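quick one if you have a minute, typing this from the bus. below you get a single protein, a line of residues and a line of whole numbers that encode the local backbone shape. could you go over both lines and see whether the tokens make sense for that sequence. anything you notice is useful, everything is just below.
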Amino acid sequence: MSSSKKKAPLDLSVLNVHPYEKTDYSYLNDMGPQTLEDILPIEKDLTIFTDSLRTFPDILEKLDDPEQRLTLFAPTNSVLRNFSVRLDSFIEDKISDEPEEKLHQFVLGHIVPKSLTLLKDGEELVTLSNSTKIQIKKVGNKYILNNEVNVGEQIETTNGIIYKVDGILVKHY
């Protein structure tokens, strides 16, 4: 389903959050290096996406591996709550006949197999899903993915980066 309306960039200034702000987890330093798997459960606005990631052992292994380098473009809970209304049609679409495999591909479509501490205007990223690519566009001091998904807070871990995003990147529903 496509909309002829273009989505306006999210104005994060109303939230008093810089669109590229980093979260400080220095208080966790006493616990040793923190992987993506360590940090994701702490992020209360990413619980739905985190639960989806943790459904799959292959993904969970990557998130916990300190040698891996990944970038997660993680839709927030509010995005996924709105998306869940359309999730049934996503599950019934053409990625696979198996609902679990469709969810697996959905999650993989938000993971890039390298750590991107800096996003570059015009760059195209290949995700772990064979059917999802991500185009980066810089508008002012904001980054927009695939011309509609705004990049918010950035969280650095020992094995990757998490970017909170205000939309979904997999469009097979």
Remarks:
- Residues 77-91 form the longest helix (15 residues).
- The first strand starts at residue 70 and ends at 75.
- Strands lie at 70-75, 111-112, 124-126, 133-139, 142-145, 149-157, 160-165.
- The helical segments are 36-39, 47-53, 57-64, 77-91, 99-108.
